């Protein structure tokens, strides 16, 4: 994914991209936790039956 995705879009778009990646891997999501930070940034955790997937964004540094 492009770093600009996390700067340009919000947690809903990040969650969708993560769910699509998990589905392509054939894994099962059993829970999710989005955390929106102020003034910007988000951390999304997907708990999988097999493990977990976590993405944190740092838009002030243009990183995810």
Automatic annotation (TrEMBL):
Gene3D superfamilies: S-adenosylmethionine decarboxylase (3.60.90.10). Its cofactor is pyruvate. Pfam families: AdoMet_dc. It is an enzyme of class 4 (lyase). Its EC number is 4.1.1.-. Keywords: Autocatalytic cleavage, Decarboxylase, Lyase, Polyamine biosynthesis, Pyruvate, Schiff base, Spermidine biosynthesis, Zymogen. One of its GO terms (molecular function) is lyase activity. This is S-adenosylmethionine decarboxylase family protein.
